[in-house]
């Protein structure tokens, strides 16, 4: 966290300049139509998009709905589209934008209200890959007086560490055209999480996960567009994980073939 | 978990890839297959001509020498180099190579692949040169 700037500010009143942002509004209680609403905001060099939304909510228009919590790129709840690209509101700074700033809810998810989307399907896909350590054959029965710890060397940790940094923000799903074309596709983050556990030296669940991974809506729906890895705020590189998953799935099929 | 409970959006329209520069580049990468198909067809025709005898072989040589065919095959060469360039960068991400517990740097893998291309090309030219003598 130390090198990355985070959103902490209340926008000061003597800020340097004003910026214009447009927000796509959807208020299902009033109308089924969406519309664009314009806001002018005071900004300075440290104003994040989340600061801007908070400013709108508190000073200009309390009807605006959006999600946020940690304001430091950890909780993964503040994802929105900024000029058509999925971004975390708290990690996006208005100083980086000249001209138009158009804010929309995350693409490829049903919108509930304004910038709030329904992420249920994403959570279902995550759960489908059994994203937890599975150990069917513990070395010894558990003895509470002398508990066996799962040991792991730094090298073993290194194999999956990058893929364990996911914060479940869903930006990669909004970036993925294959998920947009087919919502049953398990998608980048879920397949990455599956791969993360498959790579874990403490895990024995690869066989169970392969049933989900090695099918059309699993790894084989990915065509390596690669945009998911571009937009990921935690540098997880889901595209790499999914395509390593293809190699594993192919091996799995071959081995099954020879075993008859 | 009951899969039918969560909402689904209608699928994207066919023109989804026109919306963003990144997607256009992706489609360009995918489209490199088209000139390559042309090259493969030329190649197969050459094989058939070779089997049919001297006359049709000469016909094929003439066909390959025509400017439009030359141009299309040059395009195929450029397309395959472009595809190779994009693919080689992706390769170490899909197949991270490890030697003695340490992962090889991506740059080394990319350089290795280009070295392979150069080696195959040199071998090819050498064979061609020998055939000519
Ligand atoms: S892989 Fe990256 S973009 Fe996708 S949910 Fe995880 S943190 Fe977000
Ligand atoms: S508010 Fe938590 S990730 Fe942005």
Automatic annotation (TrEMBL), chain A:
One Gene Ontology term of the molecular function aspect: electron transfer activity
Keywords, comma-separated and alphabetical: 2Fe-2S, 3Fe-4S, 4Fe-4S, Iron, Iron-sulfur, Metal-binding, Oxidoreductase, Tricarboxylic acid cycle
Xref: Gene3D superfamilies: 3.10.20.30, Alpha-helical ferredoxin (1.10.1060.10)
Cofactor note: Binds 1 [4Fe-4S] cluster. Binds 1 [2Fe-2S] cluster.
Pathway: Carbohydrate metabolism; tricarboxylic acid cycle; fumarate from succinate (bacterial route): step 1/1
GO annotation terms (biological process): respiratory electron transport chain; tricarboxylic acid cycle
Substrates-to-products reaction catalysed: a quinone + succinate = fumarate + a quinol
Cofactor names: [4Fe-4S] cluster; [2Fe-2S] cluster; [3Fe-4S] cluster
InterPro entries: 2Fe-2S_ferredoxin-like_sf, 2Fe-2S_ferredoxin-type, 2Fe2S_fd_BS, 4Fe4S_Fe-S-bd, 4Fe4S_Fe_S_CS, Beta-grasp_dom_sf, Helical_ferredxn, SDH/FRD_Iron-Sulfur
Keyword Transit peptide part of the UniProt annotation: no
Enzyme Commission no: 1.3.5.1
Main EC class the enzyme belongs to: oxidoreductase
Domain 2Fe-2S ferredoxin-type: 21-109
Domain 4Fe-4S ferredoxin-type: 157-186
Entry similarity comment: Belongs to the succinate dehydrogenase/fumarate reductase iron-sulfur protein family.
Protein name: Succinate dehydrogenase iron-sulfur subunit
Species this chain originates from: Vreelandella nigrificans
From TrEMBL, chain B:
Transmembrane segments: 69-91, 111-129
Ribonucleoprotein in keyword set: no
Keyword Transcription regulation listed: no
Pfam families: Fumarate_red_C
Keywords from the UniProt entry: Cell membrane, Membrane, Transmembrane, Transmembrane helix
Gene Ontology CC: membrane
Record's protein name: Fumarate reductase subunit C
Organism for this UniProt entry: Vreelandella nigrificans
């Amino acid at each position: 966290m130390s090198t990355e700037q985070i959103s902490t500010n209340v926008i000061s009143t003597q800020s340097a300049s004003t910026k214009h942002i447009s927000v796509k509004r959807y208020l299902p209680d009033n109308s089924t139509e969406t519309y664009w609403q314009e806001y002018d905001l005071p900004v300075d060099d440290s104003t994040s998009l989340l600061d801007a939304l908070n400013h709108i909510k508190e000073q200009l228009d309390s009807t605006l709905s959006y999600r946020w919590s940690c304001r430091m790129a950890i909780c993964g709840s503040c994802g929105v589209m900024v000029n058509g690209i999925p971004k975390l509101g708290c990690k996006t700074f208005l100083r980086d934008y000249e001209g138009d700033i158009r804010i929309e809810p995350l693409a490829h998810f049903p919108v509930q209200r304004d910038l709030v989307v329904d992420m249920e399907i994403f959570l279902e896909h995550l759960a489908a890959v059994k994203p937890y350590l599975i150990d069917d054959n513990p070395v010894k029965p558990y003895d509470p007086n002398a508990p066996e710890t799962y040991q792991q060397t730094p090298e073993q940790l290194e194999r999956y560490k990058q893929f364990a940094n996911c914060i479940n923000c869903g930006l990669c799903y909004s970036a993925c055209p294959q998920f947009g074309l087919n919502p049953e596709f398990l998608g980048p983050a879920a397949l990455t999480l599956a791969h993360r556990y498959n790579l874990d030296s403490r895990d024995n669940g690869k066989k169970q996960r392969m049933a989900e991974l090695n099918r059309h809506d699993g790894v084989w729906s990915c065509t390596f567009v690669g945009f998911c890895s571009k937009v990921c705020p935690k540098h997880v590189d889901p595209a790499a994980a999914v395509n390593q998953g293809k190699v594993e799935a192919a091996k799995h099929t071959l081995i099954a073939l020879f075993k008859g | 978990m009951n899969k039918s409970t969560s909402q689904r959006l209608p699928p994207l329209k066919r023109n989804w890839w026109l919306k963003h520069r990144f997607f256009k580049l992706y489609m360009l990468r995918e489209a490199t297959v088209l000139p390559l198909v042309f090259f493969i067809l030329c190649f197969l025709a050459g094989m058939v001509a070779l089997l049919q005898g001297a006359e049709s072989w000469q016909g094929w040589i003439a066909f390959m020498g025509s400017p439009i065919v030359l141009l299309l095959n040059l395009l195929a060469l450029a397309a395959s180099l472009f595809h190779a360039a994009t693919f080689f960068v992706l390769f170490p991400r899909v197949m991270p190579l490890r030697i003695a517990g340490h992962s090889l740097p991506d740059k080394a893998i990319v350089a290795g692949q280009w070295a392979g291309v150069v080696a195959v090309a040199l071998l090819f030219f050498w064979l061609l040169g020998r055939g000519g003598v």
